[in-house]
Structures are given as C-alpha cells and as structure tokens.
Write a structure and sequence with these properties.
- The protein is mainly beta.
- It has three domains: 123 residues, Immunoglobulin-like, CATH 2.60.40; 170 residues, Galactose-binding domain-like (Jelly Rolls, Sandwich), CATH 2.60.120.260; 138 residues, Sandwich (Jelly Rolls).
- It contains five helices and 30 strands.
- Strands 9, 12, 13, 15, 16 and 18 form a six-stranded antiparallel sheet that branches. Strands 20, 23, 24, 26, 27 and 29 form a six-stranded antiparallel sheet that branches.
- A hairpin with a 4-residue loop joins strand 15 and strand 16.
- The longest helix has 14 residues.
- It starts with a helix and ends in a 20-residue tail after the last strand.
- The structure holds calcium ion (3 copies).
- One calcium ion binds next to strand 11 and strand 19.
Length: 486
C-alpha cells in the first residue's frame, strides 16, 4: 500500500497540477506498474521525532532493531545521502533538507541488507514558504543564512560568523542586546568591541514568497551610519533592491540603541505581495558603533502587525533624479561643482557638508579631515571598451583602504562591483586609476565616494572621471585599480 501511495505521488509530480487527482489515481491503478505485487515492510522503523517544525528547525529521528540488518540508504522526495545520517542505532533526517519541503505528510523508502521498509513524517504548516529560515537565529548559529565578506576575501574581517549569534544580554558591554527569543546577531562574547566594529560583511536570508498582509518586521539596532549598516530587501527574479532600512531610533536623544538595543520595526512591502524576495543585512563600516544587532525577521503577518517600537521606517534605497544614463558621466570633471552629484542625506554622517569642489577636484574635507560622508554620482552606461578612469588624491589615513574609497555599483540591484582606494599614493600628486568593468558592458552603474574616518589624511580627493573609452586605454599595471571586493 505504501508503495502505491509513493508511486501516485511521484506521478502527480510528473504530470503537474493541472490533472485532476481522480484521473491520476485511476490511471495509476490500472497501469501495469501499479498492479505489480506490493512488497510488505521487511523490518520495523520506529519514530522518535517524526514531525518537522519550521520554527524549531528540528531534525527527525528513527530507531530500528536487529531485523533491519545494515541500513544502506533512503529514497524518495529527492533526498540525497548528505540529507540524512544512518548509524547502527538510528536514522536522522537533517533539517537542511526538511526546511525546503512543502507542509504535508511524507514517506521515504528505507533499504537495508534485509529488505525494504518505509518511514513517514509530517512537515507542519507554519507558513513555511512565506518565511525565512531561522528568522530569529534560535538555532544559535547562522543556519539558513549565507555570510559573505566584502573586504579582500579576508574571513577574519567578516562580521557575520556563528560567533556573532549571541545569547541575549550576555555579550554587551552595556547591553542587553535584546531581540526576540534566546539568540540574536551581535558582538561575540569575549571579543573586544572595537575589533568587532572593524569587521564588515553581508548576511543573506533564504528566499521567501511575500504573503499575508505584505508587512515584514525585524529588530535592528546600533548601525550608527545608515549608509553603512542596513537591512535590504531584494526581489529574487532580478535582484532588484526594493527596500533598505536603517536603525533611525539610534539617533534619538539618549537612545538605548547606542548600547545595542535592537528596536522592533515594521515595513509595508504589500506592493510586492506574491513575489519571491530575500533580505541581506549589511555592515560596511569599521569605526565606533559601525556594527549591528539584528533579530527576528518575520516576513509573514496576517493581519498586519500593530507594534512599531523603533518608529516609522524610511526606505533609503538610492534614487536618481534622472534615469538617463549616457556613456560619459555628466560632470565627471567637476567643472560644474557638485552638479549631478548627490550627497547622501541619510543619518550618521554628522552633516551633509563634507564634500566640496576646489579647482576641479571633489574633496571630502570642507570641514577638515574630521568630515565624513557619502556622495553618489548620476547614472552612466558601461560602454565602449568597458574601462573607466579617474584620479585619486589624499585618502591615506591609518586604515585608508577601509575608510576612504570609491565604489562602482550597478543600478537597481546596487551591487558593489568594484571598490578601490588610493593605494598608489605618492603623498603629493593625484594618481590616475584605470578600472576594468568589461564584465559589465551595457549595464547601468554609478559611483559612490565614501569618507568614513576622522583622523589625519582621512579625506579623499577625486577628479577627472572618464567613463567612456572607445578602445582599451594605454596604461601599465601601476595605474590599474585593484578591486578590494572579493
Ligand atoms: Ca532571536
Ligand atoms: Ca562593522
Ligand atoms: Ca574624513
């Protein structure tokens, strides 16, 4: 009987959802394969845990007796060897396989040296497909999330590791880093806070379908500079960044978020109901309070949530006044001052007056080396030979390659495709850098110039940006811009 059920399930998958069930079953029963003799279970499999809960993210476990002989493998529902573990006393089916199953009842075939048996289990319906895996980090690690480095592939500079999943209230110098449940993202216990603040990285969630009310909620704390610490939501079909949120609560007078508290925010994404989305948490800053506390990304609410502790969110996705993207960046030589350029108005940069133009050179030192800020160009299309060039000066402070840099990002997804810095500085002259963007021909992009440091020489000069070369320009390795993003 169990074989029959399995067969009809497989056939259903093959035929697709347009055929009515009754037709499938009757055709199945009359088929020669279905009339084949049904093999009875040769040995017993006893469930210990046979219910999978998307909130608990538990493994399943089964025991068996001597009559099972040596169990060789499981089969069915696309299970592969790495999805389960067989010892001489138990079978364990791992959560990384179970999280992707649609809620319902399942059976797997079990093959051993003494014959065949089946095991069954249930995947509970917790709106699994509408939610991200391990949304509250209650496994105590980054299970279901994907961390990546930003800076020169240096894993020891990666902010998001299993060590950064911390218990509430234990890791803060002046916490608690409250979130929801027992664990959240925050500075690892025992690690010097300044060391952790210097780390950067990205943390990507699993993909979910936006359902229910179309509202999402999350706890997000610290993240002093909005442009360097934020949660982004992307549309999976084209990786378009649809929303970007920072912890605005941090900037309130006497805010507890300065000590790690992660306020609860809600955001209305109902315009994207039914679409597949994913989230990425970003930490791009390396100084005081340039880190995040983060927890409880709940993407399914029905009805819409009423709680909103951190105050209203603001969508801080970069916007551009003109969608026009010529192949030569307008005002790339700064002959029109800051025309066509946009200083970020987002919170955490002290003010927006750090950038000015002096003799055709963009400089971040209108307020001296202490000034910090981010300025964004208008759009350009990567065209011709696929090279761009510019001149860089200053930008040689103590941690210049993390603090004062130029990025090129793609419009829409806002992916940083290259980050480079003035690593060839001779201390006096502007240095020309040629940037290879040939992999991104015909894409629309923009520049970001960042100054996130306040010490001596922590200021960046940029001039003479050319974004169109008909032929590959003539230059030597000395002037080739090295990408810090890999
Ligand atoms: Ca949690
Ligand atoms: Ca950081
Ligand atoms: Ca500065």
């Amino acid at each position: 009987m169990k074989r029959k059920v399995m067969l009809s399930f497989c056939l259903l998958l093959l035929i697709g959802c347009t055929d009515p069930l009754s037709e499938v079953e009757s055709s199945l029963l009359s088929s020669s394969e279905a009339s084949e003799e049904i093999v009875a279970d040769n040995f017993a499999i006893t469930p210990v845990i046979d219910t999978f809960d998307f909130d608990l993210l538990n493994d399943l476990e089964y025991t068996f007796y001597d009559d099972a002989g040596d169990i060789a493998f499981l089969s069915g529902h696309n299970i592969v060897a790495s999805d389960y573990e067989i010892t001489d006393s138990y079978i364990r089916i791992k959560r990384h396989y179970l999280v992707y199953l649609t809620p319902g009842e399942y059976e797997l075939d079990v093959y051993s040296t003494t014959g065949q048996s089946t095991l069954s289990f249930v995947v509970l319906d917790k709106n699994n497909e509408y939610r991200v895996i391990n949304h509250s980090f209650e496994t105590g690690d980054l299970f279901g999330w994907e961390a990546s480095t930003i800076f020169k592939g240096e894993r020891n500079l990666l902010a998001f590791t299993n060590d950064a999943v911390v218990a509430h209230g234990t890791s803060a110098e002046s916490g608690p880093y409250s979130g929801n449940g027992d664990f959240l993202i925050g500075p690892p216990e025992g690690e010097d806070l300044a060391t952790y603040e210097e780390k950067i990285g990205m943390l990507k969630s699993s993909t979910f379908t936006l359902g229910g009310s179309g509202y999402i909620t999350f706890n997000l704390g610290v993240g002093r500079v909005a442009d360097l610490a934020y949660l982004s939501i992307y549309r999976a079909s084209d990786n378009f960044e649809i929303a970007r949120y920072s912890d605005r609560y941090y900037h309130r007078e006497g805010s507890s978020s300065k000590f790690g508290y992660a306020p609860y925010y809600k955001a209305d994404l109902s315009a994207y109901l039914g679409e597949k989305l994913y989230a990425i948490l970003h930490d791009c800053g390396g100084h005081s309070d340039d880190y995040v506390t983060f927890d409880y990304l709940e993407t399914y609410h029905d009805p819409k949530p009423s709680i909103d502790i951190g105050g209203p969110v603001v969508n801080e996705v970069p916007t551009f006044a003109l969608s026009y993207a010529p192949n030569q960046l307008p005002n790339g030589d700064f002959s029109l001052g800051l025309e066509m350029w946009n200083v970020s108005p987002n919170l955490g940069w002290q003010d927006t007056s750090a950038f000015h133009v002096e003799a055709g050179i963009l400089k971040s030192n209108a307020n001296g080396d202490a000034g910090r800020g981010l300025i964004r160009s208008s759009l350009f299309t990567i065209d011709g030979a696929g090279y761009v060039s510019l001149q860089l000066g200053a930008a040689k402070g103590a941690r210049f390659d993390k603090d004062t840099y130029v990025s090129v990002r793609l419009y829409g997804c806002n992916t940083e495709i290259i980050r480079f810095t003035n690593d060839r500085s001779d201390g006096t002259n502007l240095v020309t850098y040629y940037v290879d963007l040939t992999k991104y021909l015909n894409k629309v992009a923009y520049f970001e110039v960042v100054d996130n440091a306040t010490g001596s020489w922590d200021t960046i000069f940029v001039s003479d940006i050319k974004t169109y070369y008909e032929e590959v320009p003539d230059f030597t390795g000395i002037n080739f811009a090295n990408n810090l993003m890999y």
